[in-house]
TrEMBL record:
One of its GO terms (molecular function) is DNA binding. The keyword DNA-binding applies. The lineage of its organism: Bacteria, Bacillati, Bacillota, Bacilli, Bacillales. Residues 1-61 form the HTH tetR-type domain. Transmembrane segments: none annotated. Pfam families: TetR_N. Keywords: DNA-binding, Transcription, Transcription regulation. This is HTH tetR-type domain-containing protein. PANTHER family: HTH-TYPE TRANSCRIPTIONAL REPRESSOR NEMR (PTHR47506:SF6), TRANSCRIPTIONAL REGULATORY PROTEIN (PTHR47506). Residues 24-43 bind DNA. It comes from the Bacteria. It comes from Paenibacillus selenitireducens.
Length: 193
């Protein structure tokens, strides 16, 4: 593995576990098997390393979500949308990238807040676009009768935010409990005519 890629991977694990403030470039370098000054041959500093780790995780996690959405568009809308939320909850335990991304999106480092949110929102807009496309296709197929699929996307993302917040603070079992309770009303709300 190329040194810069190895640094990114180890840094991801450290940032996910210890946060921005708690992660140490010295410890990252030690785990990679290099001296701390060698990190600066690949990255400008801790901020640059953190933002590159963030870029990697945002691409990976949003791509996984969008890929799932595209692969399951032929499923019922109910199963497709619920499946995306379940995927995110399950990935939190399976993927250090997801853990890092969620923590950073809710509590970004103060000195990098604007840069983090700009990056996060750019990926979120792409996901919203795919959700809108999926919902519009469901409307066109007669599976969903709503006047504004964009409002459904907004409500869905709100549900997603609530479930992911529960995941961060209370863990996967409670997050699934919240998802299942909320899902009934969300689905009923968008499908009742």
């Amino acid at each position: 593995m190329v040194t810069s890629q190895r640094i990114l991977q180890v840094a991801l694990e450290h940032f996910a576990k210890h946060g921005y403030s708690g992660a140490s470039l010295s410890k990252i370098a030690e785990e990679v098997g290099i001296k701390k000054p060698s990190i600066y041959a690949h990255f400008k500093g801790k901020d640059d390393l953190f933002l590159q780790v963030l870029d990697y995780t945002l691409r990976e996690e949003f791509q996984a979500t969008i890929q799932y959405l595209k692969q399951h568009r032929q499923d019922s809308l109910h199963d497709c949308l619920y499946g995306v939320l379940a995927l995110q909850l399950n990935r939190y335990e399976e993927s250090v990238s997801m853990m890092f991304m969620l923590r950073v999106s809710f509590i970004p480092p103060m000195n990098l807040h604007e840069q983090v949110m700009h990056r996060f929102n750019a990926h979120l807009e792409e996901w919203e676009h795919e959700l809108n496309h999926t919902l519009q296709a469901a409307c066109d197929a007669g599976e969903l009768q709503v006047t504004d699929p964009n409002q459904v996307t907004t409500a869905y993302l709100c549900l997603c935010d609530g479930v992911l917040t529960e995941l961060l603070y209370s863990g996967k079992p409670k997050a699934f409990k919240r998802l299942d309770a909320s899902w009934i009303y969300f689905w009923r709300g968008i499908t009742s005519t």
